[in-house]
Design brief:
The structure is a homodimer. By secondary structure, chain A is of the alpha/beta class. The first copy, chain A, has 2 domains: 224 residues, TIM Barrel, CATH 3.20.20; 111 residues, Beta Barrel (Lyase, Ornithine Decarboxylase, Chain A, domain 1), CATH 2.40.37.20. Helices cover 29% and strands 26% of the residues of chain A. Chain A contains 11 helices and 18 strands. In chain A, strands 1, 11, 12, 13, 14, 15, 16, 17 and 18 form a 9-stranded mixed beta sheet that branches. In chain A, strands 2, 3, 4, 5, 6, 7, 8, 9 and 10 form a 9-stranded parallel beta sheet that branches. Chain A is elongated, with a radius of gyration of 22 Å. The two termini of chain A are 29 Å apart. At the A-B interface, β11 and α10 of A face β11 and α10 of B.
């Protein structure tokens, strides 16, 4: 019902995606990876939509990463395949993983423990299918994964590859360089990218020396894949995700420029409060998330075209906007007028919206429905 | 498919509601208001479900507050009536408000400006129906509303009541004492409740003296309505919302006890990382929200039964748990084992879940589907 109409007519708050910017972001990453001889296995967690996955895979619908089983089911039902569920194997979801592994050409899981491998072996696949297993390494990010220097990493990789080759196959090693989010600027990002890549290459060497065949290695994060180091070309693939949308966090870290941010939350002025020099807008944390808290000089977001405004407080459905200095000219912001918020964290903001309005130069061209839940 | 099964079998993260606790919370508030001679007009924004509304209205499905038009549509379609859309009239949603006003016995809107009143008058209702309008007062909360001492408050109330009585009726005055959330303990809560109530009563006196008939006055917030002051009995109604679930914020403020918190997020252990003395669990901010940040000694939530644990970090789908002190006994938390997180902010946590699993002593008895969007 909204296609063909102007985004300025949308009920607010509304999550809008500039299709041209998102497409350019997707194509640039494909080109960048192609130039390095790397496969791009884009992560779906930021947008969780079939249309976003289509753009990010260049139309192939093959070779993606997901963070939840709900995403895995959704993308599988939408015709995607070669899906890596890059999450420490959740034992409560083993049966559903088995069903996907039987049904898809390549549904792949991730483990970082012997217990998880034992779970897979207890749930043997039928019809000659094997579990396709990536091993998670922690190359400095400090979340999931075995440290690449930990002797148990080699032991686990060997067990995955060799313990029961008719049941389980080692598909690759996987590391998330989320520690790039602590960086400021390209040199710092590239230092983390280099350290992660070096760790992965060293571990691949360890595997070769130990006679453990491992066909793939994958690192990722939008910052590192936006500014790859040459050595990343010696890996087989990368798996960034946020880059299709980008956000102020990526701008702050140094992944991209403000013009690369494809998303906004449209909001309207719903109140004037001169006694406290504030506007209220109809976007609270329910439409934006709290992720901008304390991160930006402009408060929870940046009001596009108004760098002199601050979004200083959010409750569930209200945002408080005030000038950085001086007295607000309320006449410039009549009740009902539209503002566009550039979000700090696109993944978190997208997660608050049941529909995304995709536009070309301000005209809605599509609505995308993300999957939710687990 | 989950009814009849144990909550311990649910895929995680899972938002679970203890039906007995939620029902007791709902009944207590009805009794408390009844004892004061106050109508309870419960707010739906915390749970956004028909079932929650049924409990909170004592089965009448009459007399509720909503914060979004999506909630208004949803509850109207679910057989609710006497619905107050307690949000500064959003001009982009006027047509839909008019449709609800024509269809329901009593769909009510809220304004705090002459501009909003003018919008209503430009969209006159048909068939002799009148806009039922509440005027929002700011009695110290500092969000929407006119200050009760502001001469323009009386002017606006008079205009609503008298300017076009065949088109618009003044239904009442409304204040949200959200400033109770800055309180610590019952005396502070009651001081805010008293100040808000006194302001409302003074303004009702001003209206009477000015010959402006105003049939209703409503204040609310879960803290103030959990510990009402006697003067609140001189108002006509109250509109708390969070109390059906409660959360650690309410416990911290002093609204309730830990045993009154009806909700949990169930999560499972997905990783052991002895090198950093941490567990990973499968609930990140996507299942909990970031609202606990910096609010609790136990991190983003309280792990039920384990006050010695801290949920120290959240990414989208991962939570990092570590002991407050000492070395974690990983043997007590095997991979796949279940933990229950008590959330800091139930409204924010509920907003992350597409389904709530409602249980009686650990057996799922219902699933509730909240409405989302705007």
């Amino acid at each position: 019902m909204w296609v063909g109409r102007r985004v300025a007519e949308l009920p607010t708050p509304a999550f809008v995606v500039d299709e041209a910017v998102a497409r350019r972001n997707a194509e640039r990453m494909l080109q960048r990876c192609g130039a390095l001889g790397l496969r791009l296995r884009p992560h779906m967690k930021t947008h969780k939509t079939l249309e976003g996955g289509e753009l990010m895979t260049g139309g192939t619908r093959r070779g993606i990463v997901v963070s939840t089983l709900a995403e895995a089911r959704f993308f599988a039902a939408g015709g995607f395949d070669n899906i890596l569920y890059a999450y420490p194997l959740p034992f409560d979801k083993l049966e559903e993983c088995a069903a996907l592994a039987q049904r898809l050409e390549a549904f792949q899981v991730l483990v970082d423990s012997r217990d998880a491998l034992a779970q897979l072996r207890r749930r043997r696949l039928a019809h000659g299918a094997r579990w396709l297993v990536w091993m998670k390494l922690d190359c400095g990010n400090g979340r999931a994964g075995l440290r690449h220097t930990d002797p148990s990493a080699l032991e686990l990789a060997r067990a995955i590859a060799q313990e029961a080759p008719e049941e389980v196959a080692l598909a690759g090693i996987y590391a998330h360089c989320g520690n790039t989010y602590g960086c400021s600027g390209v040199p710092e990002i590239q230092a983390v990218a280099q350290a992660t890549t070096t760790a992965m290459l060293e571990f691949m060497g360890t595997l070769r020396a130990a006679g453990v065949a491992c066909p793939a290695s994958s690192v990722g994060s939008t910052p590192s894949c936006s500014h790859p180091v040459a050595d990343m070309g010696r890996l087989t693939e990368v798996h960034p995700g946020n880059y299709i949308f980008c956000d102020l966090q990526q701008v702050t870290v140094g992944s991209c420029q403000l013009g690369d941010v494809a998303v906004r939350v449209l909001t309207r002025v719903v109140g004037h409060y001169p006694q406290r020099n504030q506007l209220l807008v109809d976007c609270g944390w329910a439409g934006l998330s709290l992720h901008g808290l304390g991160q930006l000089p402009t408060g929870y977001a940046l009001v596009e075209g108004h760098p002199d405004l601050k979004l200083v407080a959010l409750t569930q459905e209200h945002g408080h906007v005030e000038p950085a200095a001086g007295v607000l000219d309320f006449g410039k912001f009549p009740l009902g007028s539209l503002l566009a918020l550039i979000p700090y964290h696109a993944c978190a903001t997208a997660a608050m919206h049941p529909v995304y309005y995709v536009h070309a130069e301000g005209t809605v061209v599509a609505t995308w429905q993300p999957v939710r839940g687990w």
